[in-house]
Amino acid sequence: MKAILLIALISSYLNLPPNHAQNKKTSLGTVGKSVSVAQGEVARWAGNCLRCSLEKRAWSAVNGTCYYPVDMDMKPGSYTISRRTTGGKLETATLQVMLKACTQEDLKNFPKKEYINVSPQNQARAAKEAAVINPIISYKATVRPAVFDLPIGKPANPLPKGEGNFGACRTFDGQPRDRHTGQDYPVGMGEPALSAGNGRVLLAANHFYSGNSVYIDHGNGLISEYFHLKSYSVKPNQTVTKGQKIGLVGETGRVTGPHLHFGVRWHGACINPGFLLIDPSDIPQVK
């Protein structure tokens, strides 16, 4: 009886109904940890981490920190994340994914008409190229150890402010197309494109939509992408170092002008690369 009266008094003091106070009776020391991020962003859980998981996917920590990349199309809602510490302790938390509004970008009077009314031959070419690319950028249960640290290196030096069009919903002359998977940077024609970190070149080829393209594996499931290059100077399986020149900025593929398209896939998630260019301490963390 005394316990019930005490709960009622606490409820009155906090302006809560008695049943709410009873539902929260386990709050002392047992409230779950959580972190909130928007679609296309990254969350982190720092402190002596060995192994990390998000739903049914799992991977190794990077320098003792668990990072949880959220795909730009991940359904908003609550997800369970976990980590295994160096001491063997298993901990769980809630990842709250918030909706990020899709910026509308309509490119009118697009100059390269072959990308507006795509011929059957080019459709077949693009499908063939996608069949090669998709396995490269997809989540894999087993990956090479990380050979990078955060923040990663800039893909150009100097790197101007991005166009802010990551994840944009695009139309070309009014015709809807897939969302934009990277961040565009207004780097001039012929300027060097640089590897964002140590790694191994997975693919360097000319593609219909992305033009001259380079994909680099940095370990731990992190893949960086460089599109629309004037030319590339690396080849598949070549080892590269952070800041190494891998090609020249151009305007090949479906573009309106020269720029550097820089994208990243981490454990299969398409995320805003800008989150990997900032100090890790600025990335939202589990608390």
From TrEMBL:
Signal peptide range: 1-21
Alphabetized GO MF terms: metalloendopeptidase activity
Domain M23ase beta-sheet core: 179-273
Keyword NADP: no
Source domain of life: Bacteria
Record flagged with keyword Transmembrane helix: no
Keywords linked to the UniProt accession: Signal
Pfam families assigned to the protein according to its UniProt record, in alphabetical order: Peptidase_M23
Protein name as it appears in the record: Peptidoglycan DD-metalloendopeptidase family protein
Protein source organism: Spirosoma arboris
